Amino acid sequence: MSQPKKLFIKTYGCQMNVYDSERMAEAMGGQGYETVDSPDDADMILLNTCHIREKAAEKVYSELGRYKGLKAEKPDLKIGVAGCVAQAEGEEIMRRQPMVDLVVGPQSYHRLPELTARTHNGAKAIDTDFPEEDKFEHLKSRPKAKRGPTAFLTVQEGCDKFCAFCVVPYTRGAEVSRPAQRIMTEARDLVERGVREITLLGQNVNAYHGHDTGLAGLIRELSTIDGLERIRFTTSHPNDMDDALIAAHGECEKLMPYLHLPVQSGSDKILKRMNRSHTRDQYFALIERLRAARPDLHMSGDFIVGFPEETEEDFRDTLDLIEQVKYGSAFSFKYSERPGTPAAERPQVPEDEKDDRLQRLQALLKRQQQDLQDAMVGREVSVLFERAGRLPGQMVGKSEYLHAVHVTAPENQAIQPGDLLKVRIESSGPNSLSGVLIGR
Ligand code: 5AD
Ligand code: SF4
Question: What is the position in ligand 1's atom list of the atom closest to the CA of 167?
Fold first, then answer.
């Protein structure tokens, strides 16, 4: 048998890219490539990129610059750019970095083996189409190897919302849902291979319509799979949170009490200019209904500061919204101008204002997160253990609320990855909790 070739994939950006990278590795596995952890002796380097903010996109070019020496030493080395920068910038990438051999957009990954074959003898290959066929069905099915206790599963892609700041509708295209039966098959396969928690992914996951009764229907059906213990989903838009999905938070035991529901801003004026098509009061009302269904629900969110024309007063509305909701975790960003999106054309907030607002916002979020985490001390949680910790016998896992939890088990009760155990929380540190086992 010939030696396997070595593929190094570097993944940027969202969890969807993590899932896509896994699937591309599997597709290339069928072509005799095995994945390696370093670019140094790779035969192929693939960057799976993110275009959401300027910084993320620029990282790709500086990373490519680093591979110049490798390519000079090894002219056969193939370098590919996948993901949203590939989709948005296409041939421009090859102009800026002529050593790039292939460019493949996020909807064309199933064509990766064929594109790679086309790059023989220095030829270039580019594919940024939005083909009709389902890329996941064309990718080689997952090999049966064992895997860790948690997995991502993409169920929906693309977005029709056109928030005024966002490139996703352009890079990932219109909303498309995968049929429920295919997702069920993939989920059963993951569970057979050791997965106990699945996070359903989609840019607008709660707009999923591949099941008769939407995402709630899919979650209920997934709940019937024995051995699948936990279900999560991300990312949601407030306007797609329907009654059935709200009810599922109270009724479906396997659905975890943690919800990522970005609001971006707490100012009605800014929400309108962002084209979010809901108000802050509608967001509050939604959270009230969700918490009525599941009182211990931990909220998570995304925030943008310094969106064009955001005043100090608008910003304070965002701080006030955060004070009222109390987030268990959150991601926050300075607004970044994205070419081709409506907001890029509008009067911009000065950079130092953005810096100042981001600092104030993050200080508030951090305090809130710490308070909520500290409030877990003394409580019983269930922990799905994932990996060994730094101390002898210590294992680390996640609670239902996504807190990292460290436990050192007595010697005769060693914990294995994949164990789902009851833990009493005893202390809260800067980024994680510690506790003791109270039952199996
Ligand atoms: N600038 C800053 N943040 C952005 N996001 C999306 N587009 C931009 C942008 N142009 C943030 C939003 C979104 C998250 C994935 O990234 O908060 O929810
Ligand atoms: Fe981007 Fe999300 Fe808005 Fe769609 S809903 S445009 S993915 S921020």
Answer: 7
From the CA of 300, which ligand is nearest?
Answer: 1
| Rounded Cα–Cα distance for residues 272 and 389 (Å) | 46
Q: Ligand 2 pocket by C-beta < 6 Å: which residues?
A: 159, 161-163, 166, 168-169, 203-204, 237
Query: Which domains are delineated in the chain?
Result: 5-127 (3.40.50.12160), 144-374 (3.80.30.20), 380-439 (2.40.50.140)
CB 208 within 8 A of CB 214: yes
SS3 350: coil
Q: In Å, how far from its chain's centre is CA 407? A: 26
Nearest to 270 by CA among 304, 236, 247: 304
Cis peptide before 235 (omega within 30 of 0): yes
Angstrom distance (rounded) from CA 11 to CA 81: 10
**Residue-wise pLDDT tens digits, 135-189:** 777 655 556 678 899 999 999 999 999 999 999 999 989 999 999 999 999 999 9
- pLDDT tens digits for 297-353? 999 999 999 999 999 999 999 999 999 999 999 999 999 999 999 999 999 999 999
Q: Is the pTM of this model over 0.90?
A: yes
